[in-house]
């Protein structure tokens, strides 16, 4: 059943609870990102301010990543997840207050701006924990033989929430205002917090509880760098996200290039995630285990081409199409990367390996936001996006030639081994 049943993971009650929880959390998170990007650029009209948002998040996320992975491998995952969501709710509440009439009418622009940056910085600290916790928790909820199916549904739910959050966030700015939209985010985060307690506590599979931090981190990093398939996949996505990301400067395109306002801004953001959703649901029926490495390289290549197309377009719906294609290609890439990580990572190292993943890929989102904002300020948004897409294409060719382990990767044997183990 695990090979042919596209709904295998959905037949597990706790996994369905986890998906619904993640839907609410990411929906709110996505809305919050859209609103803050819009609000900061509206205040400053400076592309570099958008880059600073990314920089404020990447500093704690990157520096804390490995330590967070160590903590996740040492602690019970359900309660740790609830604690992180509770802390995130405080950020949402703070952002709501910063955009309320009482604060906007009495605080200076710089005071509000720096306070937003401070909350984003705190969010980056939490970000370093969320990835390893979710990655580890999924593996404790579902049997190993359906890891790929669970990874597909988990990532699809994340992207579904992202597209709905981005779309609603853009329209909500116009409909109910920035502050009220952030109030909705706060309520969604609270709902997700209470839902975590519908999932039972999970066993700690790490046999080296109390292991010194330095030794624990060294083991995790060594594992990733010795596994060429994992290292190649992470490197490929890191460069693509670092240079090929456009989300951080979409506000500039919406306001100054395409001139489509907040509604168009929401559509542009949503089109990326919508493309991912379509391909992610398709992969529940079309396995990616055969010729996995080649499919990953092709997906990232298409992503780079579509990013260049978006940068050169000055027609709104053509831009939407290019972003949709980029999201579709990125969705395939994410599913393949998550499947490689799930199948190749030992149970007692999931937190640390996921943390290295977040350093490669997750932190690249924020660093990419800074790079995009800086490039847009120096050479303009169009040139910045075209440059990013070109760098992505160069990376695909380089890794395809230099890493034959990834290029020739086929996961069918790994999936059969896990099925026999179960």
TrEMBL record:
GO molecular function, one term: transmembrane transporter activity
Pfam families given in the database record: MFS_1
Localization per record: Cell membrane
Membrane topology: Multi-pass membrane protein
Keyword Transmembrane helix included in the entry's annotation: yes
Transmembrane portions of the chain: 15-36, 48-68, 80-99, 111-141, 153-173, 179-199, 230-253, 265-286, 298-325, 378-401
InterPro entries documented for this protein: MFS, MFS_trans_sf
Cellular component terms per the entry's GO annotation: plasma membrane
Keyword annotations of the record: Cell membrane, Membrane, Transmembrane, Transmembrane helix, Transport
Main location class: membrane
Domain of life from the UniProt record: Bacteria
Listed name of the protein: MFS transporter
């Amino acid at each position: 059943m695990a090979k042919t049943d596209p709904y295998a993971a959905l037949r597990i009650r706790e996994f369905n609870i986890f998906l619904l929880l993640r839907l609410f959390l990411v929906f709110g998170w996505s809305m919050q990102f859209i609103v803050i990007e819009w609000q900061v650029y509206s205040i400053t009209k400076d592309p570099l301010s958008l880059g600073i948002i990314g920089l404020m998040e990447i500093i704690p996320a990157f520096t804390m990543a490995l330590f967070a992975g160590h903590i996740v491998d040492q602690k019970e995952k359900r309660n740790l997840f609830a604690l992180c969501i509770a802390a995130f709710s405080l950020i949402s509440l703070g952002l709501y207050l910063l955009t309320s009439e009482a604060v906007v009418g009495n605080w200076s622009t710089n005071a509000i701006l720096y306070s937003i940056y401070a909350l984003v910085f705190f969010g980056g600290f939490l970000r370093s924990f969320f990835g390893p916790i979710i990655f580890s928790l999924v593996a404790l909820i579902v049997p190993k033989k359906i890891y790929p199916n669970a990874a597909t549904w988990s990532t699809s739910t994340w992207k579904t929430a992202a597209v709905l959050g981005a779309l609603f966030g853009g329209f909500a700015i116009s409909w109910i205002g920035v502050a009220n939209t952030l109030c909705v985010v706060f309520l969604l985060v609270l709902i997700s917090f209470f839902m975590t307690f519908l999932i039972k506590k999970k066993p700690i599979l790490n046999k080296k509880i109390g292991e010194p931090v330095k030794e624990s981190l060294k083991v995790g990093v060594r594992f990733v760098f010795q596994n060429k398939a994992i290292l190649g996949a992470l490197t490929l996505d890191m460069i693509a996200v670092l240079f090929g990301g456009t989300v951080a400067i979409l506000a500039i395109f919406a306001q100054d290039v395409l001139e489509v306002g907040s509604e168009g801004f929401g559509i542009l953001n949503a089109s990326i995630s919508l493309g991912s959703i379509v391909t992610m649901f398709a992969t529940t029926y079309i396995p990616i285990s055969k010729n996995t490495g080649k499919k990953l390289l092709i997906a990232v290549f298409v992503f780079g081409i579509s990013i260049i197309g978006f940068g050169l377009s000055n027609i709104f719906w053509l831009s939407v199409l290019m972003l949709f294609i980029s999201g579709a290609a990125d969705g395939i890439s994410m599913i393949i990367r998550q499947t490689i990580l799930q199948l190749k990572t030992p149970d007692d190292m999931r937190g640390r390996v996921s943390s290295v993943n977040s350093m490669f890929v997750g932190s690249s989102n924020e660093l990419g936001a800074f790079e995009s904002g800086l490039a847009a300020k120096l050479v303009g948004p169009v040139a910045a996006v075209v440059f990013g897409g070109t760098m992505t294409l160069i990376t695909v060719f380089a890794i395809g030639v230099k890493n034959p382990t990834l290029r020739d990767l086929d996961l069918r044997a790994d999936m059969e081994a896990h099925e026999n183990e179960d």
